[in-house]
Amino acid sequence: MTDVLIDRLAEIVGARHVSTDPDVLVGRCVDYTGRYRGHARALVRPGDADEVAGVLRTCRDAGANVTVQGGRTSLVAGTVPEHDDVLLSTERLTDIGPIDAVERRVRVGAGVTAAALQKAAAATGLVFGVDLASRDTATIGGMASTNAGGLRTVRYGNMAEQILGLDVALPDGSIVRRHSEVRRDNTGYDLTSLFVGAEGTIGVITALDVRLHPTPAHRVTAVVGFDDLGALIALGRELRDADGIAALELIDARASALTAEHLGVAAPVDGAWQLLVELAGDTDQTERLADALGRADLVGEPAVGVDSAAAQRLWSVRESVADVLGRYGPPLKFDVSLPLANVPGFAAAATALIADHAPDAIPVLFGHVGEGNLHLNLVRCALDGDAERALYSAMMTLIADHRGNVSSEHGVGSRKRDYLRMSRTPEDIAAMHALKTAFDPDGYLNRAVLFG
Question: Whole-angstrom Cα distance, residue 274 to residue 63?
Fold first, then answer.
């Protein structure tokens, strides 16, 4: 049966775009952190929407499960196959259409990376609103599937706010092309929003119409230090709704110390907690930022960058954190969203919880504090099996106890599917199941994700 399936897939996409090489597959079956692994029977790389649809139809008819892969930067094992799947990669869907600088929009393939779109937008004086440290690898289709946020969410919003239209290959092999040239279109169901954040469970995004934004004429960046996390949160609450806010990033001193040790990039300020603030606009924002910082309980003087080179130096610590943490082995990651008032209490309680379960692990906290979206990483966490599951479950409970959400911008994937009920009511989950069944009655598409 597998041989027949592989031959049919090769007819659709070309033999050189189908692989059953064990060495190729093993590299495709591990998640971005290196912590979780699966198994697959084949890799197929379609070149357009029709080929994607053909692959889906063929796999459905053959009873083969399909796992969709973009840049494979998921941090919740969202691209790890569990059922001897066919891996469907969008990496060849890399067309970038002409940019409409007047309407500020562009159509791109799902396999285009964030960095490639940013470069194309910048060439016309525009900005793509979602930025990630993994921009060179993360794909626009994958970012839409998880409704990714990132470093500029406080200004531009998540991926959902950037998407004007989609092409989606459905599990039955048909293609929905939902596009509109007007800015307001209320004709029927909002199908675009249905597929954004669905994590590939009801269709494969193949192309997107993306909103672009004007490039701010002025930008000022600062990093400030705090001894008290509550004081940092107070400043974050003041700034998150300020005109011109462009970024609001939390970094703890442990992250800065690790970055200094491995990259030689020292923290620009002292303090147990650091906040990176960036304002941008048509006019110089320096005085506005100085006024806000002047009212805060800082440790020492802020580090301020008014030109691009200085700003990049200030950003380097924050953008290097995730890669530096990986040098200590696969970190155990928690992506959480919390009310700002509960962040200090959660940080203290999480540290105590980690000490009980994994006393040798180093907790590192960073993230997008404007949205209360935090990334808690455990470095040198040697737990596995039942011990890891016990810590993970206890952390999810702690998040729920602090009125948080078990997933903020990374999605649910397969890692958090058992905890979906902590953030969604039974009625919510039943409605999602109904949609999944309606679109994919065979349950073969991204079977491990979200529901399991």
Answer: 52
Strands (E), 338-445: 362-368, 373-379
Is beta strand 40-44 parallel, antiparallel or unpaired with respect to 85-89? Answer: parallel
Burial class (CB in 10 A: 0-12, 13-18, 19+), 365: buried
pTM of the model: 0.91
Q: Is the pLDDT of residue 428 over 90?
A: yes
> Is 168 within 8 Å of 141 (Cβ atoms)?
no
Check residue 321 and give its pLDDT: 82
Q: Which residues pair with 218 in a beta bridge?
A: 281
Q: What value does the mean pLDDT take over residues 90-103?
A: 97
Asked: is 218-253+276-316 a CATH 2.70.50.60 domain? The reply is no
C-alpha span between 65 and 445 (Å, rounded): 6
Place of tokens 């902590």: 422
The pLDDT tens digits of the residues spanning 151-199 come to 999 999 999 999 999 999 999 999 999 988 877 777 888 889 999 999 9
Q: pLDDT tens-digit profile of 249-264? A: 999 998 888 888 877 7
Domain 2-89, second-level architecture:
2-Layer Sandwich (3.30)
What is the phi/psi pair of residue 237, to 5°?
Answer: -65, -40
Cβ 160 vs Cβ 147: under 8 Å:
yes
Per the structure block, which two tokens stand in for 170?
A: 């459905």
Query: What pairing do the DSSP bridges indicate for beta strands 85-89 and 66-69?
Result: parallel
Question: Would you list the domain boundaries of the chain?
Answer: 2-89, 105-214, 218-253+276-316
| Four-way CATH pick for 105-214: 3.30.465.10, 1.10.3300.10, 1.10.3720.10, 3.40.50.300 | 3.30.465.10
Give per-residue pLDDT as tens, 235-244: 999 999 888 9
Nearest to 274 by CA among 236, 220, 326: 236
For residues 161 and 190, the answer to whether their CB atoms sit within 8 Å is no
